[in-house]
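MATH domain-containing protein structure dump, as promised
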Amino acid sequence: MLSLYPTGNKKMHGTGHISLYLAMVEIENLPLGWEVNVMFKLFVFDQIRDCYLTVQDADGSIRRFNGMKCEWGFAKFLPLDTFNDESNGYLVNDCCVFGFEVFVHERSGMLQCLSMIKEPANGTLTWKIEKFLTLDQVSYNSQEFTVEGLKWKLMVYPKGYFRAEAKAVSVFLHSCSYLLPEHKFFAEFKLRIRDQFNNNHLERRVKRWFSSIEGEGYGDPRFLPLKDLYDASKGFLVNDTLIVEATILVMSK
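structure tokens r here:
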């Protein structure tokens, strides 16, 4: 089940945030010394853009639930200012949707083989966003592109994902493919905003497991500080055009 602290778990320094945890219940009848090892994701639904904000441990750590520790999660899941801003889509008409996805790690002694494709064909999308300074929506989507049968798109927040802060351009790569609940795949990718003068591009390299949550995306909410965007010498914004790219470096079959 989910354990939600609407105003933050103060004991874990979550003041000013939504705190969200995955908890095991009805553990009284489990055998002595029980433990369950899982990877999990927590998410909140963006009701305006029909996609999810997904949060998981940065390294995809396996968490051990047992009699001493039956709750794991995030004290700072989402800033309250971001959650309460209706334009972000998380709280609409006083209604919100939280959820979770769990992968149980079984110690079966069996090995699983995972095939990886390095530098897949047609793995780069280049998106030129014109009239960038006049954009007035919270977020914008690129056209979809297909790599090894899976569909992707870029999502950019011109004034930042955490709109209340409005200090950086946010960039995310989203999976657009529908998967069966038991399926997941790995991708290593690079997000880039091009320096159109000096080729000193701003890049982020990301490794993530994607699952059956359609619209699941990863990136950096503080990808490009607005002060650097507006600095003409940096070369990111030229003739009111921003160039954003995504390159799939490695993906599983």
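Residues 179 and 212 are 5 Å apart (CA to CA).
lmk if u need the other ones
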